[in-house]
Design goal:
Elements (H helix, E strand, L loop, with lengths): L3 E10 L2 E11 L3 E6 L6 H8 L7 E6 L2 E2 L5 H7 E4 L11 H6 L13 H13 L15 H14 L4 E5 L7 H16 L3 E5 L3 H7 L2 E6 L2 E6 L1 H4 L2 H8 L3 E5 L5 E5 L2
Length: 255
């Protein structure tokens, strides 16, 4: 059974249809990239799946139950949503921010050894241990993004929803984060990430859902979705698609 199942999902803002007829199934243990131009409906789709946009049309089921019917704490134990940016007003350390990811699992006043083990492991995997004691507000944009991802990993959900997870990151950490997301999916998580970087999606994702003007225009493995004619039609950019020795797709733009 699919973890997430969407049937004819749509959303309107101020009378404008921003998402229409989205029918998708997301099984466990898969890395799915959601791509498309600005205003295509990517973040809206992710917000509906995260239970943050309740006034949608159609059906969005998680584990067979409508996302709006899930108790919030129980849903938070299953599904973690990482927005593009988070503003922090108080002087929390990076480690304390990661520990907040354990909130859905806390039953008492004090953290358990399991909580601290999850924090330590998550910070190691995101290379954030060197600044664990620093004020989160003092970190660079890329460092903050990695801390927030560590918090999501520490939550140990079954599904991870991410909106542009490599915002502010240099190329080293863009690749590292996408490799981590792929590895998490191999370990059994459903990972769904909104992205503008088609080459990163092609290199690491199992599948790309391509949106344009609020509609799904493609849903398949990267090699099938990222054809020059599709890129031209959706993004208005000419391109050439190369294949590496491993069969991975690489896009050269402006050809």
């Amino acid at each position: 059974m699919s973890l997430f199942s969407l049937r004819e999902v749509g959303m309107r803002y101020n009378g404008v249809q921003v998402l229409e007829g989205a029918t998708l199934a997301f099984p466990q243990a898969q890395f799915v990239a959601i791509a498309g131009p600005n205003g295509a409906g990517k973040s809206t789709l992710l917000g509906i799946m995260a239970g943050l946009r309740p006034n949608y049309m159609g059906a969005c089921l998680y584990a067979g139950k409508e996302v709006t019917e899930w108790p919030r704490r129980a849903f938070a134990r299953e599904v973690c949503f990482l927005p593009q940016s988070v503003k922090m007003e108080f002087p929390f350390t990076a480690e304390q921010v990661v520990l907040m990811g354990r909130t859905p699992h806390c039953d008492g006043l004090f953290e358990s050894p399991e909580d601290w083990e999850a924090v330590e492991r998550a910070m190691a995997r995101t290379d954030t241990l060197p600044f664990r004691g620093r004020d989160f507000r003092s970190l660079s944009g890329g460092e903050r993004q990695r801390v927030l991802l560590a918090s999501a990993v520490a939550q140990r959900p079954k599904t991870l929803l991410l909106d542009e997870p490599t915002t502010y990151l240099d190329i080293k950490y863009q690749v590292a984060i996408y490799r981590l997301l792929r590895n998490l999916s191999r370990e059994g998580l459903l990972v769904v990430a909104v992205t503008h970087d088609l080459n990163l999606a092609a290199s690491f994702a199992d599948r790309i859902v391509l949106l344009n003007a609020g509609r799904i225009v493609a849903d398949a493995p990267p090699a099938e979705v990222l054809a020059p004619e599709v890129i031209l039609r959706v993004f208005g950019v000419r391109s050439r698609v190369e294949r590496g020795p491993d069969g991975k797709t690489w896009i050269v733009y402006g050809e």
